[in-house]
Each structure stands twice: as structure tokens, then as C-alpha cells.
Specification:
The structure is a homodimer of 80-residue chains. Chain A has one domain: Mth169, Chain: A. Chain A has two helices and three strands; from the N terminus they run βαβαβ. Chain A has helices spanning 16-27, 51-66; strands at residues 2-9, 33-46, 72-78.
């Protein structure tokens, strides 16, 4: 099964990289851009038959390695 | 309008970071993980009224700044 783990900063956590990209877009002439949020995602192929097992594994991976629980949140989606 | 720009490496381009994460997952005991693909995404808020204008802007941003056309591909999705 393939699970997608999408990781993003918690609301209120500053993202200097996103701010830099936003400034660069303005400098390139994209004046209509009002905000930009960066997201990381992992598409993980897991050799489990039952969706609930794959999702449980993905949740454990996110908690232990893929996301930083102090500053990030994540969501899981079954892709296939 | 909010457009999501999802950027990933073209097939065949090596991703050493993803390989390292995959090894780390195995080391943590997630032996059922067979593959891991990393994706970057940008959620861009664009002050355009028509969806086709927002998407055209997002395409230009991806071409000029958000993606590296030599090694990456991207897809656009209207979020709202």
C-alpha cells in the first residue's frame, strides 16, 4: 500500500525559506502572490495488505522520524 | 485563489536524502517499507479572480523559480 505523509509547520512557526521564496516571486514581478506555504511530503510504499496496518505504520514513522512534533504537524492519506 | 505546486524529481534522478531516510526507517524496524519518494509542495495564494489566471501565474512561477526543469517535474492543482 502507498501512504502519503504530508508534513507542514504548525501555525505560528516562522518559515524563513518560504519568506525568501515569496520575496523572490515579488522581485520577479509576481505581485499578486499574497502568501506562500511550503510543505514536505513522503510517499511511502509499505508491504502491508490491510490499509489500517499501513496507516498505523506510517503514523509511527511520522512520529519517530518524518516529522518534528515540536514544530510540525502531519496528515496521512492512503494513495493506493 | 490558492494553487498548489507539487514538485518532484524526474524518474531516474537519484535522491540521496530519500535513500538515507529509507535506510533510517529500516534501522528503526520498519522493515515493510519498500520505497520512499520525497515531494516538495508550495501552496501559493494568488490575488486573481479567474482560476485560469491563477493557474497561469503558478505555472510561470514554477517554470522560473519553484522547480528546476532540468531534474524536476511539477503539477498544479487549484486548492480553492
Amino acid at each position: 500500500m502507498k501512504v502519503r505523509v504530508e508534513v507542514r509547520l504548525k501555525p505560528g512557526v516562522l518559515d524563513p525559506a518560504a519568506a525568501t521564496i515569496l520575496r523572490s516571486l515579488h522581485r520577479l514581478g509576481f505581485d499578486d502572490v499574497q502568501d506562500l506555504v511550503q510543505v514536505r511530503a513522503f510517499e511511502v510504499d509499505i508491504a502491508k495488505v490491510r490499509p489500517e496496518d499501513a496507516l498505523a505504520d506510517a503514523r509511527a514513522m511520522a512520529d519517530q522520524l518524518l516529522a518534528n512534533p515540536v514544530i510540525e504537524t502531519y496528515r496521512l492519506d492512503l494513495v493506493e
